[in-house]
Amino acid sequence: MTRTVAVLLAGGTGRRMGADVPKQLLDVAGKPILAHTLDVFTAARSVDDIVVLMPAEHVDAARRIIDHYGYSVRHLGPGGATRDASTRAALGVLADEDPDTKVLIHDAVRPLVTVDQVDACAAILDRFDAATLAVPTTDTIVGVSSNGDVDLVTDLPDRAGLRRVQTPQAFRLGLLARCHEAAVTDTGFVPTDDCGVVRRYAPDVPIAVVAGSDDNIKVTHPQDVDLADRLLRDRTL
Ligand SMILES: Nc1ccn([C@@H]2O[C@H](COP(=O)(O)OP(=O)(O)OP(=O)(O)O)[C@@H](O)[C@H]2O)c(=O)n1
Ligand SMILES: C[C@](O)(CO)[C@H](O)COP(=O)(O)O
């Protein structure tokens, strides 16, 4: 039976949040954001193992959270200096696994992901080797280019064909590892997500879209904390 490993990327420092600790450690709706996210992945029937990456100096804090709530975590360790380096740290942990293993890469600071979304991302890998959660955009999106002190609109893509990408992103382990291995020496390439890495190094591999939700916010800026608090208090797993 193919196993499914969830990778919770929590290796960031939360520069945009500007808090004293990385935002994944902030208490929101009664417990740390990391704990809310672990609740979801612990409840998801499709998930066999959980891997958590933290900034090296905050691994102990995450260990205390995991022990306090009694989560079963296969590996907790340091991530990397960038998001993609943290993904690669996880891939190092999984180096001896079957290449068919399903890997769900998730921003630990998206605590409002649902169990059904996690399970749907794992399930779609029975039909595709790569997938991402995404939502339609209700705003019009434009392309711009800089014209000195002001940006000018240069492109108006049809928004029916656009999606806002969320996580989890789901991949067969062999595919993801191969693409990240190629990306590591590509110094000019700064990926913002793992789908970007796969798209660049395996452009022929279709990436399926799984329906996300507007509630699945990435807690990024200080104003996101109140919204996350409200949404987390209202949710049932
Ligand atoms: N070196 C890094 C950088 C980011 N992440 C994780 O990737 C997700 C991306 O969210 P983001 O908002 O970019 O997190 P930060 O990098 O912490 O935020 P900022 O960019 O504001 O510093 C987060 O769960 C974050 O912890 C990671 O695992 N390792
Ligand atoms: C992975 C991601 O959450 C998809 O929307 C996003 O690209 C992360 O961006 P960030 O700037 O690293 O927060």
Task: Provide keyphrases for this structure.
single chain, 237 residues, alpha/beta, Spore Coat Polysaccharide Biosynthesis Protein SpsA, Chain A, 7-stranded mixed beta sheet, two-stranded antiparallel sheet, 7 helices, 11 strands, globular, binds cytidine-5'-triphosphate, binds the ligand C[C@](O)(CO)[C@H](O)COP(=O)(O)O
Report on this model:
- This protein has helices spanning 33-43, 59-69, 83-93, 115-124, 173-183, 194-201, 223-234; strands at 4-9, 27-28, 31-32, 49-54, 75-78, 102-107, 130-136, 143-147, 150-155, 163-172, 207-211.
- The mean pLDDT is 97.
- The longest helix has 12 residues, at 223-234.
- It has a 7-stranded mixed sheet with strand order 5-4-1-6-10-7-11, with helices on both faces. Strands 2-3 form a two-stranded antiparallel ribbon. It has a two-stranded antiparallel ribbon with strand order 8-9.
- It has 237 residues and is of the alpha/beta class.
- It has one domain: Spore Coat Polysaccharide Biosynthesis Protein SpsA, Chain A.
- The structure holds cytidine-5'-triphosphate (CTP) and ligand LQXTBERG.
- The ligand C[C@](O)(CO)[C@H](O)COP(=O)(O)O binds at residues 83, 107, 165-167, 192-193, 218, 220.
- The site of the ligand C[C@](O)(CO)[C@H](O)COP(=O)(O)O has 9 residues, from strand 10.
